[in-house]
Write a structure and sequence with these properties.
The protein is of the alpha+beta class. It is about 25% helix and about 25% strand. Bound molecules: alpha-L-fucopyranose (FUC).
């Protein structure tokens, strides 16, 4: 595939990225009588497999990784090629991206935007707000390790497999009567890539191995069984390349001989060989590049040399499977799975292949485990896999869709730990972004625009049409709260609170009052990458910014309460949030993308940013905001289904949230086409961009379980194409691990394990018929209520598992969570308040309830429990309309305690209020398992 430099891509984007970038799709033809090989069957079909080698096609090679080290494995008979990456090898070196001309020109830029002089505003942004340099730097490869194994003649029974259950690529074939097998895996515990070659006839393995690289490198042979590649990253954008790296490959043989000289490793007549690859980098962090890269490479290699292959393999498996095995999924299998993976993709449009959806789902989880681990860099636009010095969009971090999308499946598919690199990056950005905030806006806090790189560039890049977007850092910082909703980890929140606060502080300092509408708005900003008039995207207060800022300011305020600090800041954050522009329905019945009802010149643009409120956020919901919900559907109809890989993936998530199973599944199918999925299942923008893989995994999870609305909604968008199946180990906000088994499109059995005490609200079609609920831990039947026909509510206890099932359904072992909750999950919230055995109740007599704050988009309530309560162990607040319909349920928010008084605050209702005057709402608080039912009525007046 042709490499795409940033500038080429920008030219293409200017012309409308979709059309300009589409390559010719590849093809693959069905094999008559094909059957899945034993390795794929042993993996329960969770394997990519092929009957041909990758040749020179990088998009046929198979990825392995341990978060830091990555390799693409080609599996050619004559030459094995491992294309190597290390996740800190970035072009250039530390730089300060802030442009000191910005702040002095900001007032004039804003004036031009408010005067609708968008083009003139963009000109001034070009002159004064662009980063230094005006583009960011690229993630670059280490090079290749090639094993020249001899001619490929006389070969039969060739297969190549990437087993997702073992994170191992295996290549095996028969050549001249000898069965050769190669296994490759990247070990996180031992920090090496392991290539194991075996043959079933003694002394049959002979090869020469060498490194090569597009970087500036020197090869050598440091000892008789090792070769080395010492290099430095490339110069770019006027910044001198400064990341030094050392790659070592060392052979351990049984039988035969091994020698190394002049950078060539020679193995002759061996019976088995283990090649260990170790890579060290001098990158310490975004501002320091003087690490002992040679020492790091050698130390890891020497340590791995003392470990035999069996132990290397078993440690790798234990480490990997502890993550991967948390989620099991079965969507059914047809004979389509007996074709090689590339054939399955090529035939997908005409085949019934439900297992491919399961494979795609698990591949995303595999890729996240392999590219993002505690202590590594976050997964970039290509995860960690890149063979080019000038990769598309620099293989960096694009924040206006791609980087957040990479992490959508992290919590929902039970890979909480894999999320951590993002929070490390956010803390870095809170430093580099603070300089940009000061220099370009004269503001406190920190800001990051639409991209960042290994050096944590935070300024405007690429040009105003793309780069002049203020809310990149805001989106990333809001993920801190989102992650907390899953884990309940107060220590995590405390550690990351300063970055969250700083992101909010920037907007408290910079939002400006719209001259005619009176709302507080960002200016200048854009609705990502979409021109509202020809060639201009810059505007004030685009809808996505307002949605992101509602989440950010809420998150910062709520976090400040959990952490117990900053009351003044909190009040300011809330007051500011209340003055953000509400979402509006435009003339076409759509969600308006900008403050004005403009019609975008490019109607089918890939970004649908203004539906951020539908997904990933929860500001547009079916039951909470019915009008906006319908407008969201209309918005998607107007934009159409087509788009880049990541755009399709986001649309799976959108349609899942719209509970439209057929459409969500159509989008899954649209993604599984040869122009959107490479033979190795890498998602194609095109070109390759990994966000589509992660977005697809997230979308499939959203089709099976949603938890954004204060309840666990089971099978909200189950397509007819998956009539029977099971999934287990999915995670829901509030700290739940969930399994479900279904047949005929309906749940037979739901199993939920609670991390914390609380009130569990389950929504499923199952509850419209006969069902039973059991506390699996002791076989008892917990008390339940039925707030809606398809909703069951019950009090749950930390560590216990609950099962709801149709009467007579035999428990399905695979839907019961088998692995413990992620280690980051704390027992209760907050840890400073020890659980108590007395179950005091916030009954109507003991509690007072009042609306504390209201605004056009919602309001907050407060319940104060004044007698008999010693501690809160779990609580929820439910808002209902006067007719009893539940409109919102809240688990997040804050409670505090002073003596015997317990206060639950900020139990926000975030839906739309019916227009005009006063609306009566019911406010139901459940604290320590008791509830004030019937609800206390509160009246809210729309302002
Ligand atoms: C944004 C998108 C492009 C591409 C790039 C990396 O600019 O609009 O489609 O995904 O990021």
């Amino acid at each position: 595939m042709t490499d795409m430099t940033r500038r080429n891509v920008l030219k293409a984007s200017a012309a409308g990225a979709g059309a300009a970038l589409v390559p010719t799709a590849w093809t693959a033809v069905a094999r008559a009588g094909s059957q899945a090989p034993p390795q794929a069957l042993a993996a329960g079909d969770l394997a990519l497999w092929y009957d041909e080698a990758a040749g020179t096609d990088w998009l046929r090679a198979l990825p392995i990784g341990n978060g830091r080290l990555g390799a693409m494995v080609f599996g050619n008979v004559d030459t094995e090629r491992l294309q190597l990456n290390e996740d800190t090898i970035w072009a250039g070196g530390p730089y300060d991206s802030a442009n000191s001309r910005g702040a002095a020109n900001l007032a004039e830029i804003r004036r031009r935007v408010f005067a609708d002089q968008w083009s003139q505003a963009q000109d001034l942004i070009n002159q004064t707000m662009m980063g230094t340099p005006g583009g960011q730097l690229a993630y670059q490869p280490v090079g290749n390790l090639r094993l020249a194994l001899g001619a490929a003649s006389g070969v039969s029974q060739y297969t190549r497999t990437l087993d997702l259950t073992t994170a191992t690529v295996t290549t095996t074939y028969l050549q001249n009567g000898v069965r050769y097998t190669r296994e490759v895996f990247a070990s996180a515990p031992d920090q090496v890539i392991v290539l194991r070659l075996t043959a079933d006839r003694a002394n049959s393995i002979t090869f020469n191995a060498t490194f090569d690289s597009p970087q500036r490198t020197t090869g050598s042979s440091p000892d008789a069984a090792t070769i080395a590649l010492d290099g430095i990253s490339g110069n770019m954008e006027g910044v001198t390349g400064s990341v030094r790296f050392l790659a070592l490959a060392h052979a351990v043989t049984t039988g035969g001989t091994v020698s190394s000289s002049g950078g060539t490793l020679r193995v002759s007549g061996a019976t088995s060989v283990t090649v260990l690859v170790s890579i060290g980098s001098s990158y310490v962090n975004y501002r320091t590049v003087n690490g002992d890269y040679q020492g790091a490479a050698r130390t890891r290699l020497n340590a791995a040399r003392t470990v035999g292959i069996d132990q290397l393999r078993s440690r790798h498996l234990a480490d990997y499977q502890a993550l991967f095995d948390r989620v099991r999924i079965n969507l059914g299998r047809t004979a389509a799975a007996d074709q090689p993976t590339d054939v399955r993709i090529a035939q997908h449009a005409s085949a019934n292949d439900p297992q491919f959806s399961a494979l795609l789902f698990q591949y995303g989880r595999y890729l996240l485990i392999s590219s993002s681990r505690p202590g590594t860099q976050p997964a970039n636009l290509q995860g960690i896999w890149n063979d080019s010095m000038t990769p598309p969009w620099d293989s960096k971090y694009t924040i206006n869709a791609n980087l957040p999308m990479n992490y959508w499946p992290a919590d929902t598919t039970n890979l909480s730990e894999c999320f951590r690199p993002v929070f490390d990056m956010v803390r870095d950005l809170s430093v580099t972004g603070a300089r940009v905030a000061q220099a370009q806006y004269g503001a406190g806090g920190w800001v990051t625009h639409h991209n960042t790189d290994g050096w944590r560039g935070a300024s405007v890049v690429d040009g105003p049409l793309w780069g002049m977007w203020q809310t990149g850092g805001a989106w990333l910082a809001s993920l801190i709260w989102e992650h907390y909703l899953f884990t309940g980890d107060v220590e995590f929140l405390r550690t990351n609170y300063p970055a969250l606060k700083g992101a909010a502080q920037f907007f408290l300092d910079t939002l400006v009052t719209h001259p005619t509408l009176g709302y507080l708005v960002t200016n200048p900003s854009n609705s990502p990458e979409l021109a509202h008039h020809t060639d201009v995207s810059v505007c004030a207060g685009p809808t996505m910014d307002n949605q992101i800022l509602r989440d950010l300011l809420d998150a910062a305020a709520r976090a400040s309460e959990v952490v117990g600090v900053d009351a003044t800041f909190r009040a300011q954050a809330r007051a500011t949030r209340d003055r953000l522009p509400p979402m509006r329905v435009g003339s076409r019945g759509n969600i308006q993308e900008w403050l004005a009802d403009w019609i975008e010149p490019e109607r089918t643009h890939r970004h649908v940013s203004h539906l951020y409120g539908l997904h990933p956020s929860n500001q547009i919901t079916r039951r909470g905001t019915p009008q906006l919900y319908e407008a969201a559907r209309r918005t998607l109809e107007l934009r159409g289904d087509d788009g880049t890989g990541w755009s399709l993936a986001w649309k799976i998530n959108f349609w899942a949230r719209l509970e439209d199973a057929a459409r969500a599944h159509k989008l899954v199918r649209d993604l599984v086409r040869t122009d959107r999925l490479a033979p190795n299942m890498f998602d194609l923008h095109p070109p390759f961009q990994i966000d589509g893989n992660f977005g697809a995994t997230s979308g499939i999870a959203e089709m099976l379980l949603q938890s954004h609305n204060g309840e666990l909604h089971l099978l909200p968008a189950l397509p007819t194409a998956w009539p029977t199946g099971q999934v287990s180990g999915l995670r829901g906000r509030g700290g739940y691990t969930v399994g479900v088994a279904w047949s005929s499109g309906q749940a037979d059995e739901i199993v939920v394990r609670a991390d914390r005490d609380g009130t569990l609200r389950l929504r499923a079609r199952l509850f419209t018929g006969a069902f039973t609920v059991t506390d699996v831990s002791d076989g008892s039947t917990p008390a339940t209520t039925r707030p809606e026909t398809d909703v069951v509510q019950l009090t749950v206890r930390s560590g216990r598992t609950y099962r709801a099932a149709r009467p007579g359904v035999t428990p399905t072992p695979t839907v019961t969570p088998t692995t413990p909750a992620p280690p980051t999950t704390p027992p209760t919230t907050p840890p400073t308040t020890p659980p108590t055995t007395s179950p005091p109740a916030p009954s109507g007599a003991r509690a007072t309830y009042r609306v504390t704050n209201s605004w056009s988009g919602g309001f907050q309530g407060e319940v104060t429990v004044t007698a008999g309560t010693t501690a809160i162990r779990g609580w929820t607040v439910t808002w209902t309309f006067a007719n009893g319909q539940v409109v919102n349920q809240v688990w997040s928010g804050v409670h505090s305690q002073s003596g015997a008084n317990v206060t639950v605050r900020n139990a926000d209702y975030n839906g739309a209020l019916p227009a005009g005057g006063a609306t009566t709402f019911g406010f139901i608080a459940t604290v320590n398992g008791s509830t004030n039912n019937p609800p206390t009525n509160l009246t809210c007046t729309t302002t």
